[in-house]
Design brief:
The protein is of the alpha/beta class. It has two domains: 175 residues, Aspartate Aminotransferase, domain 1 (Alpha-Beta Complex), CATH 3.90.1150.10; 276 residues, 3-Layer(aba) Sandwich (Aspartate Aminotransferase, domain 2). The chain contains 14 helices and 17 strands.
Amino acid sequence: MSETKAPSAEQLRDWDRQYHWHPFTQMQEYEPLVIQSAEGCRLIDVDGREFIDGVSSLWCNVHGHRHPKLNAAIREQLDKVAHVTSLGLSNPVVIELAKRLVEITPDGLDYAFFSDSGASAVEVAVKMALQYWQQCENPKPKKKRYISFGQAYHGDTIGMVSLGGVPRFHEIYGPLLFEPIRLPSPATYPLPEGVTKEQLTQHYLGQLEKVLEEHHEEIAALIIEPLVQGAAGMVMQPDGYLSGVRELTKRYDVLMIADEVAVGMGRTGRMFACENEDVHPDLMCIAKGLTGGYLPVSATMASCEIYDAFLGSHGESRTFFHGHTYAGNPLGCAVALASLDLFEEEKTLENLQPKISRLSEHLEQIAGHPHVGDIRQRGFMVGIELVASKSGEDAGGHTPYPWELGIGNQVCRKILEHGVWLRPLGNVIVIMPPLAISMEELDCICKAARDAIHEVTSEIEDSARVDA
């Protein structure tokens, strides 16, 4: 029997165009970049070219690719069982992971419910909140609405698009969605008209309290991305806002759902973003970096009070009627446990602090560029917003690049030529590397971003002068 010949690099690229429909990708303009292997914080394509993974393979890789301990954890679990359902069954590594998560998450989160994506984890929390109010010790059946925020992103399911605040999604999928009470994004850039930086926290908390005063009897929960709205373009919240939200939701008897899918697992410099302001939510959603970027596992952490509301006899129908086939997958849970071990063994968060400082130094240099309108950083989460022109010191006065120009995509294509892989959010260049990245690789990412911004914006200016 003759051996099957492996497809060539060009054949793979052709098939990628012909058969593979990519998410969030305009396929008419797509240029295949086929990654065949990876090592540490570097991706290697089918032509042997190496690229530094500057966005952690969509914000999920933590310890680098092909880490020996993570690989070994999966191989060891494979010798036992690859998958068992969590519907009426359990498995040692699933049990151990649930225990570990209860131990490391903020106090009061006493139970872990597993799913297989960030959107699923948040969907679980939203459904738990609704059902809780229907069958808790003192039921409040009117509580069926939610508070969310402009520009928020909680995933791509219909429920999560409903709660999200991405206008483009709502324009397209509007007929399928339900309406939350949506507050303006609690952003630090641009400043709301007539509001100073010093007034921001109280300004946004005042908006929230007004809504809670009027609608708290019908609100089941508030959902928030703690500290940073990631997919909105790394939009930062003012200091003290998160803790203020927790205080108000408690006062008005509204559950708080913390969506830590993007900001959790060390991204802000602490294991969970809520820790930065000592916040203890009623429900917390974890995904992305939970398995170190290896396998799709997510968790919804719930308080004992919420859990107890679902207990009863079979005939009472108090069960949480939700579950996914691959929820609590043993392979994923095994590698998640190994990843948590690595956080301790390799002192990941401790070693991250000097890298955060080095990143800040680079960003200070980039901030002076005439087409950089704003730089937003929280720990290892960075957004560099590109603008057509700056107008004085007023952030709201900057002139943005037209969406159609795709300036972010142009810059990231140029960055690729410098050996770095980044993926933009509109006009915002995102830098979010694996926590394990070396100082030298971090320097390369920032230099590539700085040089590419200069090269692309200069080309645009030169072209505009010629057209004029």
